[in-house]
Amino acid sequence: MVRHFQYFTDLSESEIELLSTLEKSPEQLESGEFLWREGERAEEMGVLSKGWAYSSYVLEDGSRMILDIFMPGDVIGLREFAADTHQSTVEAITDCTFCRFPHGHLDNVFEQSSRLTNTFFSISATQQSMLVERMVNLGRRDAPSKLAHFLCEMRSRLSKTNAGGLNEFRLPLSQQMLADLMGLTSVHVSRVFSLLREQSLVYRDRHQITIPDIDRLMEFADFRDGYLRMQTRKSDA
């Protein structure tokens, strides 16, 4: 979590220690286990210390819409800080380490550090911006651009906590998860991967993604990563 926050701002030793208090109760979850379900009381949030998870919403016809993909260091439940109930279900994609904390612990952070308060707001704004891009993907981009844009986003997010470029990375999402993210069918996702491979833009070997030329893929997807690079406002600690 500390490394994730340091992407947004420099932290003092006291702020690092304050953040670390939010990860003092690690909980081990296996792939497929739920952190919480839509409609349950929203009295806590948490930090994903290890592994991947996702949030989803089930529509009236029983179909699933995936809203967020969470990676190590992400804060989960921040959008529901002022809500009475959880607005979506959160499930582990891989085996995870998740640290829950009550909303009141975040109040303590806000009281003790204006810089961390600004950082939490920046992270919340970034999460909201990713949802906006998801809406644009669903409504305005064709299938190849949807998948290419999503892969560029994942690569950019992973680069925050990985030194150097990422021409290869692991994407532990099933084909059905990718379909539910982009409003496609699983078969259509497979066809799009084949099309991207034929154009030498993306190669996939199960969960391993290889991007030979990230600039070409970004141009193909019309990907601009400004919405992922929000910075905190300058303030005293």
Automatic annotation (TrEMBL):
Annotated organism of origin: Kushneria pakistanensis
Ranges of residues in domain Cyclic nucleotide-binding: 7-77
Keywords: DNA-binding, Transcription, Transcription regulation
Superkingdom in the source lineage: Bacteria
InterPro entries cross-referenced by the UniProt entry: cNMP-bd_dom (IPR000595), cNMP-bd_dom_sf (IPR018490), Env_Response_Regulators (IPR050397), HTH_CRP (IPR012318), RmlC-like_jellyroll (IPR014710), WH-like_DNA-bd_sf (IPR036388), WH_DNA-bd_sf (IPR036390)
SMART domains assigned to the protein according to its UniProt record, in alphabetical order: cNMP, HTH_CRP
UniProt domain HTH crp-type: residue ranges: 141-215
Keyword Kinase: no
PANTHER family found in the cross-reference section: CRP FAMILY TRANSCRIPTIONAL REGULATORY PROTEIN, DNA-BINDING TRANSCRIPTIONAL DUAL REGULATOR CRP
UniProt-recorded name of the protein: Crp/Fnr family transcriptional regulator
CDD domains: CAP_ED
PROSITE patterns for the chain: CNMP_BINDING_3 (PS50042), HTH_CRP_2 (PS51063)
Transcription listed as a keyword: yes
One family name in Pfam for this protein: cNMP_binding
